[in-house]
Amino acid sequence: MTSLQSHRQVWEQIPWILNGSASEAELRAAQEHLRQCADCREAFAFEQRLRDALLRAQPNVGDAEDGWQRLSARIVSSEARPPLSARLRPSATQTRWLAAAVIVEALALGAMVTTSWFTHAGRVPAGVYQTLAQPEVGRPAATIRVVLAPDMTLDQLRTLLNEAHLQVVAGPGESGVWSLAPAEDVNTVATDAALHELRQSPQVRFVEPINGATRAHSP
Amino acid sequence: MFRPEGEREPEAMRDDSRDRELLQQIAAGERRALERLYFNYRGRLAQFLSRLTGRREAIDEAINDTFWIVWQKAAQFRGDSRASTWIMGIAWRCGLKALRRSGPLPPEHGDSMLDALPTVDTTLVAEELREWLDSGLRTLPFEQRATMEMAYFLGHSCEEIATIMSCPVNTVKARMFQARIKLRNLLPTLGGAPAKEKVQHD
Question: Are B73 and B121 in a shared domain?
């Protein structure tokens, strides 16, 4: 090791020699160097005075007893209240109850789904579909077919149906035919009267009774 | 001659043995042991922290938090360092947090602060010397000041300071080197000689 390396190493070691944390080997090397090096001896003396001054300085740091009382109060307060993890973690009893509740809930859900499936299956057989054009159960049977003028408005149609006591039960189909039925109980008089109303309307292009109730009419 | 603390080693070992025992008792939930440890450390911790900040609330908060953590984590002390190093590591982190909560950390002063220091007076009395020393220390960057305090005031080794501050040993050496150079220039009256920078650091 050169003299310069030794000088630098010893200079860097001075604080740790002073505070007693240097190893025995470092201490012996420093002692040897310091005997020969006035600069390092002077540096050592400076650091020693600096350290002594730091140790002598005793800043006022308040009352230790007050601090301990505050810490004690904090500990007591925390012990009065279980730790957050304990509060969030369910107990063994709670866990068993939760498991039982989940099982009961699952069984109830299963029963509900099964009942619903059987009920649904009994009301609407699988594979049976109902279209909008298909007469619903209870819908009156059509007694009159008509073809209306293309420029007839919905309001005009509604007014005509009201006056003739008719209702639309189907149509219009591809050929523009509407199927009408009496709004009231079916009887011949009512159908005839309705036919008469329809035939009076300039916007009815064609009208005929179904099942040959009366003869066809073309205005 | 060169180990003024030559008598400290057995004493330090006794202190460490006592602290380890207290930590074990604390881990077992003995509050009396925490009280003993608190009063053993409170003074030096408060003095150490008071040199880093003048904010009394931050100091009290840091000490309270430190021993609160010691109370909760004593069982986690593995014994691979001195008990005082483990406690100081907690105190260092709590101190930094408390300082940050109470405001920004003290600025890292540069050489521009040197002009504000008083002129050297060889007749300084003890009180003036202390103020002079405090003024000099305040010009050091926060980490350099803390490093010097841990070495000279608390007596920790270079490796222990690295553990406490969670930094490499070379960083501790560099901080100590810079702090010594600056104080040597600021406080020549302690050395009785003008500033010198004869030692160059790699």
Answer: no
